[in-house]
């Protein structure tokens, strides 16, 4: 069997047809053939926003969620599953690969000696990548800016 058309997994995942074979003596036999269409990674994941902004609240603890990124993919099947990762590891933040939730890897210690005085705003940036679990899948990235003003993250000890 050969196809005259290109199949599109997003439109039809399978076809069924009846095939008849007839010999020179006019004897025949039939069989039902089921053709399964496989998917192809045609679409890039798309983040709901090109950038996200979150804040680490004062007193936040290890494991606490500080925000969630979200991307969609028009592919179906395994090619349409979106997994998240950080482009570079962070000592302070991690991401749940299936939900896109960014959480703390450490307790957010307040700045030493800062008290309740006005603090200088501070931010950290992460790059989050979205891709399917398949090898050589298409990917996308988004920038995440996190306000760490109320933590000692990134500050050298006094």
Automatic annotation (TrEMBL):
Locations listed in the record: Membrane
Coiled coil: none
Keywords, comma-separated and alphabetical: Calcium, Membrane, Repeat
Database matches in InterPro entries: Cadherin, Cadherin-like_dom, Cadherin-like_sf
MF terms (GO), sorted A to Z: beta-catenin binding; cadherin binding; calcium ion binding
Residue ranges of domain Cadherin in the record: 7-47, 48-157
Biased composition (Low complexity): 130-142
Cellular component terms (Gene Ontology): catenin complex
Pfam families reported in the protein's UniProt record: Cadherin
PANTHER family from the UniProt entry: CADHERIN-23, PROTOCADHERIN-15 ISOFORM X1
Protein name as catalogued: PCD16 protein
Domain of life: Eukaryota
Gene encoding the protein: Dchs1_2
Organism: Corythaeola cristata
Region entry Disordered, spans: 112-142
Main location group: membrane
GO terms classed as biological process: cell migration; homophilic cell adhesion via plasma membrane adhesion molecules
